[in-house]
Amino acid sequence: MKDTTTVYQHGTLAMLVVGLFEGTLPVSELVKHGDMGIGTANDFDGEVVIVDGTVYQVVESGQVNVLGPSDTVPFASVNYYEPQVKEAVQNINSTQVQTKIEEDHQLGNYFAAITMRGTFKHMHTRVVPKQSKPYPMLSEAIKVQPEFTRDNVSGTIVGYYAPYLFQGATVGGFHLHFINDDHDFGGHILDFEIDQAQLEVQELENLLQHLPVTDKNFRSANLNLANMNEEIESAEH
Amino acid sequence: MKDTTTVYQHGTLAMLVVGLFEGTLPVSELVKHGDMGIGTANDFDGEVVIVDGTVYQVVESGQVNVLGPSDTVPFASVNYYEPQVKEAVQNINSTQVQTKIEEDHQLGNYFAAITMRGTFKHMHTRVVPKQSKPYPMLSEAIKVQPEFTRDNVSGTIVGYYAPYLFQGATVGGFHLHFINDDHDFGGHILDFEIDQAQLEVQELENLLQHLPVTDKNFRSANLNLANMNEEIESAEH
């Protein structure tokens, strides 16, 4: 039976901060834990958006690929989607809708999966550029990130709210990715404005944090940076 | 089939820091996720040690009780024990054996379950005192904590190593409890000296973090204290 109470996460954000960009989990394993989610790909190559079991990868050119079972990811979160609340929202921007979700669901201390499907007056994304070995630190890797905007676009926002207590393991607060219905535009969301969309929220009682314990680079990395929070804040927001 | 790759944790250390001491999970549920572990009981009433499926509670008088299925816990970690490494250790103190485990297993970035069964030249524990409502903050609750020592005692150390990245969710580094074979002495370990013991270590690739999402007090608590790390360091070490 599919577990709809848990967000499964492979890898941690802290691993990306120190440049552990190599894929350590095949997509075939990832999708055993959920049919919707977000992440990045091997070599930190773009923004991953998982919708209805398909694993889309938006790369720095703006192109959208579909990852196959043997492709790997260093960091991704997925869940089996079964929202408790579905509602129509319209004429609302990203800041407003996030405040609405936080208030309606008393977000703060637990995990939630969020989707918004519909039409957007405006969508503004960015895409992390592919890295090569020897990998730099995150702060270096994201110095130049392509940004993309599109108006009047139909598509799906997929993402999570995570308690700030788990900042470092993951992104504290909202972390949302986008893929359009034509599958030629998407990325890590910077801001957006909804025309009309179906907002769905699934409260989750579990985080299943999976770590690549047999990976040599992971085992020997120093993930206890004194400035971890600052690195994350500057990278993710 | 029992999952031997995961440490299951109910609640977080941060919840204790802000005084969420009420039990939010029955023991009957907790023991579905493991047969060994540590925690505390409803009302922050003592130190819990789970050995071979029995849930012992060491209370502030020093007395040891056994918790029943309907007793509840606010915070506990358990796993199904299947150590990959078993070895005899002797004439080694707590600092030395922890350094040995850290080096032998390259601890730092992943979770591990640890037991040491045998005879101890010296064992020094403390036990958190039961609290009543309205609960104080952790720093107030543990201002006076009974300490206990015993020489030449046989028993079992049970506990975990957790990456410091998860400090706040849990205790970063080693967190060890003790129960003696006669079941009349134990607690949260401050220091010890091994005469001879079997050391067993189980590397774990998953943390399953469970949160009491339906608990009103949990949902409304402010768990984002600026001084969370300081509170934890002063409380747990």
Could you outline the blueprint of secondary structure elements for this entry?
The structure is a homodimer of 237-residue chains.
Chain A: E1 6-10, H1 13-17, E2 25-26, H2 27-30, E3 36-40, E4 47-51, E5 54-58, E6 64-66, E7 72-73, E8 75-79, E9 85-93, H3 94-104, E10 111-126, H4 138-141, E11 147-162, E12 173-180, E13 186-204, E14 206-210, H5 216-220, H6 228-236
Parallel strand pairs in A: 1-14
Antiparallel strand pairs in A: 1-8, 2-7, 3-4, 3-8, 4-5, 5-6, 9-13, 10-11, 10-13, 11-12, 12-13
Family (chains A, B): Belongs to the alpha-acetolactate decarboxylase family.
EC number (chains A, B): 4.1.1.5
Pathway (chains A, B): Polyol metabolism; (R,R)-butane-2,3-diol biosynthesis; (R,R)-butane-2,3-diol from pyruvate: step 2/3
- How many helices of chain A? The count is 6
Structural class of chain A: alpha+beta
Portion in beta strands of chain A: 35-45%
SSE run of chain A = EHEHEEEEEEEHEHEEEEHH
Radius of gyration of chain A: 16 Å
Distance between the termini of chain A: 36 Å
Going by CATH, the architecture of chain A would be 2-Layer Sandwich
Q: Based on the structure, what is the oligomeric state of the protein chains?
A: homodimer
Organism (chains A, B): Paucilactobacillus oligofermentans DSM 15707 = LMG 22743
Catalytic activity (chains A, B): (2S)-2-acetolactate + H(+) = (R)-acetoin + CO2
Keywords (chains A, B): Acetoin biosynthesis, Decarboxylase, Lyase
Family (chains A, B): Belongs to the alpha-acetolactate decarboxylase family.
